[in-house]
Amino acid sequence: MLEISIPAAERMCLEHLVLDYNGTLAVDGALLPGVSEALRQLAGQLTIHVITADTFGHAREALATLPCTLTILHAEGQNAAKLAYLRNLGADRCAAIGNGRNDRSMIGYAALGIAVIQKEGAAVETMLAAKVVAPDINSALELLLNPQRLVATLRL
Prior knowledge:
Largest sheet: 6 strands, parallel
Oligomer: single chain
Structural class: alpha/beta
Helix content: 25-40%
Strand order of the largest sheet: 7-6-3-8-9-10
Shape: globular
Strand content: 25-35%
């Protein structure tokens, strides 16, 4: 569990990290450098879930040795499916990271929603739903590895 107390705001007790794959952990289907190491570190504190339509068909192979659960979704209805997955875990115990329009609901309902931009860009709706916007996945994962950065960003 990862506990983060934000002065004059909320206290988060996070148990799960829910991540999109393409555009978030990967670009053009290839896992980005540094992601594997960060996920291994975070797995000591959070249960890691990757949910994706796997547009390029590489997620299963790329994540095979990482401590995470992979769920491959149908191409249709991803926004609702990702939100249902998050709610099933308990949204108030989840951090969620994504970039696409189909990530907006899970980002908005998670206790901590982080939008990333990267090479694929980010949907405006998703950025507006997030509590934090990060320039790339490694910066977003570092926020969880160094929670005082989140405190500095989110305090009132």
